[in-house]
Amino acid sequence: MRCCDVEALWDEMREGVEPRREHVLAHLRGCAHCQELYREYEGVAYCLSCLPVVEAPQGLVPKILDHIKTVRGPRYSTPDSVARVTSPLGSLYVAFRPTGITYLGLDRGEPFDAVKSQIERRLRRRVRPSEPPDWLRERLERYFRTWQASPDWLDMSDLTEFERAAMRKAMEIPRGEVRSYSWIAREIGHPHAARAVGQAMARNPLALLVPCHRVVDASGALHNYGYGLEVKARILQMEGYAPQPRRSRA
Questions:
Q1: Is 142 a member of any domain?
Q2: Of 110, 157, 159, 193, which cross-links 163 as Cys (Cβ 3.0–4.6 Å)?
């Protein structure tokens, strides 16, 4: 269960589904980022637990759920557009809306219906096929000229605050260079959240533009990559990265 899955429980509650408490607890036991947040608010939670139990007014829960539906519903009323674009790395699938690019993935030869389903699961909303607009082509062409993107091109509003901070910091890594998960964790003010940074990079919906391929483990090893280590190494090579030989231990 991922952090965004916990948030998705609100959507299920809105539809009248009982929250899965045991799933939330299982996620909390395994997620460093959520554990850090839990520790931060544990004192507040304890104080709240000491308050006397008050019976909620009748009809309060339906009103809260209606409010959630009102607030969140309009955001997803219009599907994101998805276009197939050619690039020096091959074909890409790019989802976008007027506020920016929301998803980018490499074409692995799967049928479009399968790709569409994958994007919809990742974004948690519908998408529809579209032709790439000029502004999208221009930004992608600029990216492959410079190997750098601007946060202004992207719509990361559906990510958590922690994920956005990690993504923006990854975008500061220069082409041809790499940084570690722990470096990002320190830079964004969460020095003990390297594992959480790794999870954020693994869930990165904006491959290439948010260069998670430039993030490596503490030893300098390329570590995992959603499209495989060969693709990660190929992208880094195209960017001019030259891995330093490891020193042998005496």
A1: yes
A2: 159
Cα angle 174-214-100, degrees, rounded to a multiple of 5: 75
Q: Count up the domains in the chain and report the number.
A: 3
pLDDT tens over the chain, length 250 residues: 456 555 555 555 544 555 566 667 777 777 777 777 777 676 777 777 777 877 777 777 777 767 666 555 445 568 999 999 999 999 999 999 999 999 999 999 999 999 999 999 999 899 999 999 999 999 999 999 999 999 999 999 989 899 999 999 999 999 999 999 999 999 999 998 998 998 899 899 999 999 999 999 887 778 778 888 899 999 999 999 887 655 544 3
Range(s) of the domain holding residue 235: 161-239
Extract the tokens encoding 6.
């916990």
- Separation CA 225–CA 142 (nearest Å): 24
Q: Are residues 217 and 196 in the same domain?
A: yes
Q: Is 212 a catalytic residue?
A: yes
**CATH number of the domain bearing residue 93:** 3.30.160
Q: Is the pTM here over 0.90, yes or no?
A: no
